[in-house]
């Protein structure tokens, strides 16, 4: 039988947009414990000699290992099916705001797997890894040139780790200058949530700075908050509303005049790389997410890399290790010299080598002019989405161009019975990963969309068409489409609050009730 759309009955669960977008809506996959059985073994092992003493001593297992047994094809198919349930940038458009989910060029992956790169060990003698150290030095040079700074720490593993590195350098600088009483950090309300968390983790008191009606930081509010107890400001630029801070130089000057330092959150560097050097704006420290800006793998908890660039004032406090050149010989300085102000180590080794290779490959492939073009294209794509959707979705700061991401609120959903969450869930049925929801907090019902530079006009137009159709349907009163969504995904709508507060972290076999006698 065919339905009224000409599709065979029973396979009408993939809409046209999801089919074109390449995000298949698959059936759910059971847990591996539900497929296998503990009563059998998937491999043949020789019987143990019970007379041989165990080297584990009291740590030897006394109970069954309780692992499910599967054949190799069963195990392989299970994990492949699970992997297909994940939404990925290779499967479709990933419009998460403030996350820069761009395409990862396969050339980068090929370079990261080269012999002499993929098979080296951080404990090898430095004389045997001169090429790897030179690669780190070259990448560090690019990062300093792109940001207009004097030093860089390559060690931090991601953005939040980089924030801690930069703020530790600020704290060390104040202590070295006899200013250890400075215990306040200013954080704009539109900042990334890790900013106040990092400051608090290092023992600082966090003082919020209100935004102006146009979504940017109020310079006068910063000046009014500055005093002899302020250690610094943590400001994101471009900010989380998708806007460039027009008064950033005046803010930096005021912060420095008060004896404090300027930490810039570089999570949104993809919007300005190769166009603006943050060092020229007056920043003292900034982390750069290699796993966002320079297209290395992103998501799933890693791997990541968040090098931190430092100004002249903070360069002496950079953590170890760092590359030092003596003629043709390169050395990683791994120990503090006498009288050195270096922070010491932030982690056991030197950082994420695979991320370094991918990022440098991306830089060398594009060149400085190409990186600038990528940033401009990211801004162009975001403004294109804004221009095509602003008649149906309200852009609270719509009277000015956005940068790399466009921000909408939920005001046009009022009276429809549909919320931002409902609309995001309906996007799943259309084959799209939802945009960032309810962030930044300064905008009610926020919808933050970042298209990146790697999406084509065709992809953007397809996404725009879906977003317009969803809003029009919400306004037409088709509430159930949204409140019941997702209806075509492997899992239906979950009680996310309960899942977060009462997670079940261990699978247990269901108990079988005995029949009544």
From TrEMBL:
Keywords, ordered alphabetically: Oxidoreductase, Pyridoxal phosphate
GO MF assignments: glycine dehydrogenase (decarboxylating) activity
Domain Glycine dehydrogenase C-terminal: from-to ranges: 375-481
EC numbers on record: 1.4.4.2
InterPro entries: Aminotrans_V_dom, GDC-P_C, GDC_P, PyrdxlP-dep_Trfase, PyrdxlP-dep_Trfase_major, PyrdxlP-dep_Trfase_small
Known role: The glycine cleavage system catalyzes the degradation of glycine. The P protein binds the alpha-amino group of glycine through its pyridoxal phosphate cofactor; CO(2) is released and the remaining methylamine moiety is then transferred to the lipoamide cofactor of the H protein.
Name the UniProt record assigns to this protein: glycine dehydrogenase (aminomethyl-transferring)
Organism name: Maritalea mediterranea
Gene (name only): gcvPB
């Amino acid at each position: 039988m065919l339905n009224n759309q000409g599709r065979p009955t029973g396979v009408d669960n993939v809409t046209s947009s999801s089919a074109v977008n390449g995000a298949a809506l698959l059936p759910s996959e059971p847990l591996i414990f539900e497929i296998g059985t503990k009563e059998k073994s998937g491999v043949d092992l020789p019987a143990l000699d019970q007379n041989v003493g165990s080297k584990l001593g009291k740590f030897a297992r006394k109970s069954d290992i309780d692992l499910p047994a599967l054949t190799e094809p069963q195990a392989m198919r299970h994990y492949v099916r699970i992997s297909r349930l994940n939404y990925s940038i290779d499967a479709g458009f990933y419009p998460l705001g403030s996350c820069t989910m761009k395409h990862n060029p396969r050339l980068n992956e090929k370079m990261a797997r080269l012999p002499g790169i993929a098979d080296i060990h951080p404990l090898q003698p430095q004389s045997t890894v001169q090429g790897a150290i030179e690669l780190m030095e070259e990448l560090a040079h690019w990062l300093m040139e792109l940001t207009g700074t004097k030093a860089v720490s390559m060690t931090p593993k991601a953005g939040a780790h980089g924030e801690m590195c930069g703020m530790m350098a600020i704290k060390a600088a104040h202590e070295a200058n006899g200013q250890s009483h400075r215990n306040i950090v200013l954080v704009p309300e539109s900042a990334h949530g890790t900013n106040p968390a990092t400051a608090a983790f290092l023992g600082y008191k966090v003082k919020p700075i209100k935004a102006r009606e146009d979504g940017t930081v109020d310079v006068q509010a910063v000046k009014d908050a500055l005093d002899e107890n302020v250690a610094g400001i943590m400001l994101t630029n471009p900010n989380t509303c998708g806007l460039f801070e027009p008064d950033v130089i005046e803010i930096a000057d005021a912060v420095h005049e008060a004896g404090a330092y300027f930490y810039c959150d570089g999570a949104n560097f993809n919007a300005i790389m190769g166009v603006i050097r943050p060092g020229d704006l007056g920043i003292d420290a900034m982390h750069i997410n290699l796993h966002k800006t320079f297209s290395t793998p992103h998501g799933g908890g890693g791997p990541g890399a968040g090098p931190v660039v430092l100004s002249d004032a903070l360069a002496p406090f950079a953590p170890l290790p760092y590359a030092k050149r003596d003629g043709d010989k390169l050395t990683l300085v791994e120990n503090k010299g006498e009288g050195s102000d270096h922070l010491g180590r932030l982690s056991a080794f030197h950082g994420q080598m695979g991320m370094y290779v991918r990022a440098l490959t991306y830089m060398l492939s594009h060149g400085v002019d190409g990186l600038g073009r990528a940033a401009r294209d990211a801004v162009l794509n975001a403004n294109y989405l804004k221009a095509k959707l602003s008649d149906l979705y309200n852009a609270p700061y719509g009277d000015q161009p956005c940068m790399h991401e466009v921000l909408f609120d939920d005001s046009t959903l009022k009276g429809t019975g549909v919320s931002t969450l409902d609309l995001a869930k309906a996007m799943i049925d259309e084959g799209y990963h939802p945009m960032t929801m309810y962030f930044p907090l300064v905008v009610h019902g926020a919808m933050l969309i970042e298209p990146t530079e790697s999406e084509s006009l065709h992809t953007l137009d397809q996404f725009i068409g879906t977003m317009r159709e969803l809003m029009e349907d919400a306004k037409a009163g088709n509430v159930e489409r949204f409140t019941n969504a997702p209806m075509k995904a492997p899992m239906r709508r979950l009680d996310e609050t309960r899942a977060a507060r009462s997670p079940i972290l261990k699978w247990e076999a269901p108990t079988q009730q005995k029949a009544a006698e």
